[in-house]
Amino acid sequence: MKNLIHIIVCSLFITLNAEAYSGPKGLYVLEYPVNMPDITLTSENEENIRILDSNSDLTIFIFWSQSCFPCLREMKRLEKFYPQALQDNIKVMLVAPASEWSNNDDERKFLTKYGAPTIPFFNDKENKLSLSLGIGSTPYTVIMNKQGKKVATIQGEADWSSNKLYKQIKQLIKTNTAPQPIMAPMEYSNHPSVQVD
């Protein structure tokens, strides 16, 4: 009987855990922004880019991998999201493990094949950025403000064509320009996990 109860409890835990970590999870806004690590990524042009040097109001890091099907499904929507974000001084950075690619031409061809021919991509050598942020699965999105602090995340696939998501992201700009408090109250401040349609 004890074994049966143990099996049921373990099965329930696995089921709930799988539910918690699969599919779109929406925008999660941190109540207290935290410092981003001082790490350098390598651009498509082989330039070393220090992530904290961004002058954008927000920087969106989308961690992905070529074997991640939800990541590939995001690409076409991200391609449409990218120019709109650029107009609003929001930087979009696709971040992949450097070890996945033999060269940058292959990575660009791959992105073009899946509908993202223009979004800037960056390689994370030795996975320093993803490891320092504790990212264990993709897709995973981290949003950094102008002050170099992580202010929000999206775990799992996001609908980048959603107007609701875009409004929530733009709200982060207004929130983080306020001098006091560090994170001004937002309409969903009592509900840290906001689901995206």
Descriptive notes:
- The protein is built from five helices and nine strands; from the N terminus they run αββββαβαβαββαβ.
- The chain has helices at about 1-20, 70-85, 105-115, 130, 165-175, and strands at about 25-35, 40-45, 50, 60-65, 90-95, 120-125, 140-145, 150-155, 195.
- Strands 3-2-6-5-4-7-8-1-9 form a nine-stranded mixed sheet.
- Helix 2 links the parallel strand 4 and strand 5.
- Residues about 5-25 and about 175-195 have low confidence and may be disordered.
Topology, please?
Blueprint: H1 2-20, E1 27-35, E2 40-43, E3 48-50, E4 58-63, H2 69-87, E5 90-97, H3 104-113, E6 121-124, H4 128-132, E7 140-145, E8 149-155, H5 163-177, E9 193-194
Parallel strand pairs: 4-5, 5-6
Antiparallel strand pairs: 1-8, 1-9, 2-3, 2-6, 4-7, 7-8
Condensed summary:
The protein has 197 residues and is of the alpha+beta class. 35% of the residues lie in helices and 25% in strands. Strands 3-2-6-5-4-7-8-1-9 form a 9-stranded mixed β-sheet.
Q: In angstroms, what is the radius of gyration?
A: 18 Å
Order of helices and strands: HEEEEHEHEHEEHE
* Class of secondary structure makeup: alpha+beta
Shape descriptor reads globular
User: What is the CA-CA span between the terminal residues?
Assistant: 43 Å
Residue fraction in strands: 15-25%
Q: How many β-strand runs?
A: 9
CATH topology: Glutaredoxin
